[in-house]
From TrEMBL:
CDD domains: CE4_PuuE_SpCDA1. Residues 69-285 form the NodB homology domain. InterPro entries: Glyco_hydro/deAcase_b/a-brl, NODB_dom, PuuE. GO terms for molecular function: hydrolase activity, acting on carbon-nitrogen (but not peptide) bonds. Is involved in generating a small heat-stable compound (Nod), an acylated oligomer of N-acetylglucosamine, that stimulates mitosis in various plant protoplasts. One of its GO terms (biological process) is carbohydrate metabolic process. Belongs to the polysaccharide deacetylase family. It comes from Siccirubricoccus deserti. This is Chitooligosaccharide deacetylase.
């Protein structure tokens, strides 16, 4: 029977499994940089309009042409400047990082791709381009997944370990990711704080959930200063850390180069990294390492799960 997405309102409930994180850590923390700049809708790619998402340009100008040069510059800032600032923050502290990479974006910046390879950051495919997968036909989506994998392997020298759509997935995405093969996990889910297994088309498939809450996207919402953002994410960390004495969890922190890569905002990230590093029993790690650890510690329980 063809795999179909089913809603689950129960999950682990009040008895989550002990992840047994390395070093008996209370909390596994994964920082993600969404590398999107250069793959977004634009005139250069023949889309006929400029993407303004997660920038300070909100589509209010240059309506007649549809081209927003302010937004274009903000995207380019992320690639030209923001990436390198975030890269330095993590490299200076010897901290790992996961890249949610849009394939076309990384093609546009060979220097950043080389730095990612040299640093050993893991790659989760963020799609071939910044598109809405739920608007693609099944055939189109299948092609996008294949093109993303081929491109990322060419640019970075290895296939992506995971998959995460730029927008929400389609009802076909997970099935097509499994059909393509070669992925350890997908992160197209926001309803959990621990990885979990599914059976997809008769095959075991791991989901490593992500978060839009612990995310610098708040900077284009209600957050004004780096202090506000730091306080907000710190509170999430402190809650999970306290709970971790009994029920260890994982925490994802999403970053965007054109947002938190700006100096004033990056100060909040710097404070957060230094704050977390003061805790000895926290595992700051890559997403692929969380996936591999879960596979080894909590192997697939067998056919029939979630079917």
């Amino acid at each position: 029977m063809t795999y179909a997405v089913k809603r689950d309102f129960i999950g682990y409930a009040d008895a989550p499994p002990d992840p047994h994180w390395p070093g008996s850590a209370r909390l596994a923390v994964n920082f993600v940089v969404n590398y999107e700049e250069g793959s977004e809708p634009s005139f250069a790619h023949g889309d006929g309009y400029t993407e303004t998402g997660l920038t300070e340009a909100h589509g209010g100008g240059q309506v007649k042409s549809g081209r927003d040069l302010a937004a274009e510059g903000m995207f380019e800032y992320g690639s030209r400047v923001g990436f390198w600032r975030l890269h330095r923050l993590f490299q200076d502290r010897g901290l790992p990082l996961t890249i949610f990479g849009c394939a076309l974006a990384l093609e546009a910046n060979p220097q950043a791709a080389a730095a990612i390879r040299a640093a050993g950051y893991d790659i989760c495919s963020h799609g071939w381009r910044w598109v809405k997968h739920f608007e693609l036909s099944e055939a189109e989506e299948r092609e996008h997944i294949a093109r993303a994998v081929t491109s990322l392997e060419t640019t970075l020298g290895e296939k992506p370990a995971g998959w995460y759509c730029r927008y929400g997935p389609s009802v076909n995405t997970r099935r097509l990711v499994v059909e393509h093969g070669g992925f350890l996990y997908d992160s197209d889910y926001y309803g959990e704080e621990l990885p979990f297994w599914l059976t997809v088309e008769g095959k075991p498939h791991l989901v490593v959930p992500y978060s839009l809450v612990n995310n610098d996207g708040k900077y284009v919402g209600w957050t004004g200063t780096s202090g506000q953002w730091f306080s907000y994410i710190r509170d999430a960390f402190d809650m999970l850390y306290a709970e971790g004495s009994k029920t260890p969890k994982m925490m994802s922190v999403g970053l965007h180069m054109r947002l938190i890569g700006h100096p004033a905002r990056a100060m909040g990230l710097q404070r957060l990294l230094d704050y977390m590093m003061q805790r000895k029993d926290v595992w700051i790690t890559r997403r692929v390492d969380i996936a591999r650890h879960w596979m080894a510690t909590h192997p697939y329980p067998g056919k029939g799960l979630n079917e």
